[in-house]
Amino acid sequence: MKMNTTIDNHDSDFLSSVEKVFEEAAGILNVADDLKEKIKVSNSTYIVRFGVRLRGKLFTFTGYRSVHSEHREPVKGGIRYSMHVNQSEVEALAALMTYKCALVEVPFGGSKGGLIIDPTQWNANELEKITRRFTQELAKRDLISPAQNVPAPDMGTGEREMAWMADEYKRLNPNDLNTGACVTGKPVSKGGIRGRVEATGRGVQYALQEVFKHDRDLAFAGVTGGLSGKRVVVQGLGNVGFHAAKFLSEEDACLITHVLERDGMVVDEEGIDIEALSTHISEHGGCKGFVGYESDSKVGLQADCDILIPAALEGVINSTNASNVKAKVIIEAANGPITYEANHVLRDKGCLIIPDLYANAGGVTVSYFEWVKNIGHIRFGRLQRRQHERKTRQLVSGIEQMTGAQFPQELLTKIVAGPSEVDLVRSGLEDVMCQTYQSISERWHADDDIPDLRTAAMIIAIERIVSSYESLGI
Ligand code: NAD
What we know:
This protein is an alpha/beta fold and 474 residues long.
């Protein structure tokens, strides 16, 4: 067994964990060995070492872009900036992207990239220079292109980095009308879509809302009642963790009792004010100094709670701590937070695990909407909004004439306004998250050989990829 890169134990590393789940699901489906092998392996992984002159000196950076499967193109996947980035991690993330896109019916293949860098050690000007140089290296090999390979934000990157990448790509391809679609997760002013920043965390919220409508699934974990009042632990208050925690506490009345960060954790059994904590972290670089701060965050993953949301990095729940985890439901907002071995321990304890390839698919789903917007060159809802308003007013006026009563003003204002772009994005995302969960849950219960939601999700993804390969004649 290979050593995990982020944790000190002997569990399967991230790539092996993904491959083992794939093997089990493909085995249940009886996929032929040769096709199984073709789907499982990454098609290519590009490693680049490039120099950037900064602070009077030449620094050499190492970056990766892995393409797992091109059965649909473009291939899609984030770019991560972290000191832990390595080939095996990038290949695991690229493979997950293939399965994730197939599962949520987003017409992309899987890819992922990363740069070995600690973004906190460089200022914005330096990061821009490094990102633009990395983009040039990727562009040379069509590893960034609206038609072939479309990066997005991931850990350590966000709208700012995507704007730099899009701009650099545009400079290199001034005659291409579709350059805006070369990356997603851009700021709205640079062709991004409203609702993309929140999308992954919003998707986690929609996923949990749907899970809590499935009594049979909840019964597996001994959970009763609705989401309201459920006690939640969140690891990582970055893009994904922050939005998930914010929406669950503000809109679903969940109590976020623990937030675990790099420098410790914050505990408040009455529920943490997520906005206030996030502001504190931005201003002070960590959660130290916030009310309820404790320096040792390790115990946080084992806190007594209903729902655990690991939203930071992979391998954090492993065979050294899985048996002590008390959460009844774990939703994998991060990619690969539970090792293959820990998954078995938790499942045997009756913990309901909502797997990463479904749980954090909100990001790629809204990235797909952004890509469609970019190649369509028009904002969603732009043509229909006024017409919707006019038709609704006519309908209301008809009802008033027929009944002789006046339509309630408050309701009128709500129903007359046509959908904005963010309304449409959220509606599309909610639909994807709800429909997908229903199909995974149904599949799990329909077959005694399928042990959990993760295997069920992987089975659905593999079926679609197999069918795509078969129709290609490969
Ligand atoms: P981010 O960089 O915005 O946030 C990560 C957060 O985790 C940061 O607040 C960081 O301080 C914290 N963190 C890092 N190490 C930690 C540790 N050891 N203990 C506790 N906290 C720690 O990254 P993100 O975009 O939110 O991504 C988080 C996870 O979600 C990753 O696994 C990523 O692949 C996955 N993901 C992200 C997206 C997206 O749209 N951004 C989409 C799908 C999946």
